[in-house]
Amino acid sequence: MIRIAALGGSLRAGSVSAQALRACAARARGAGAQVTVVAGRDLVLPLYDPDGGIRTAEESRLLATLRAADGVLLASPTYHGGMSGLMKNVLDHAEDLAHDTPAYLDGRAVGCITVAWNEVAGASALAGMRASVQALRAWAAPMGVVVGADATFDLRDGEGYGTDPRTARRLDILTDQVLDFARMRAGHTTSVPAPPPLEPAI
Length: 202
Known about the structure:
38% of the residues lie in helices and 22% in strands.
């Protein structure tokens, strides 16, 4: 079974980015993937400190989730033309994977989603997120999605289902691309087990 890490959302109640992320997670689960969602306040971590020593339980959980993943889904609100500080801090924590084998997010496909009132700002944030994941040696999925901040989702059993057919279709394409690449990766590699959570930062 392939494993997908779904990370994102915001601290805002009713976060559209969290709902979009859960819509993708629901599709991935429906396709047989094991999905770990870490969203909203679960992503409130200390600012990344490379010399910070022992990681908190929340930081260790994030790193273990990324290490175990065959593919990754990321969703962020757009703040002033860029991804949220919450999401940037999550990606900064991936620096702790620098000495893994493979290093960082090498070999994983990452699907990137931003939410914005302004599509230009959303596209700018999306480009920044894609640049960051590529710097972490991941494969940014060809489909990137800017979701309108006024998008609506039905919630069923805690998962999101898009009510706008165009948005839903684009999120489906993005999720399927991550799943397809994750299956290829899982078929040719052995997932690296998560190390003990108390390792000092590099």
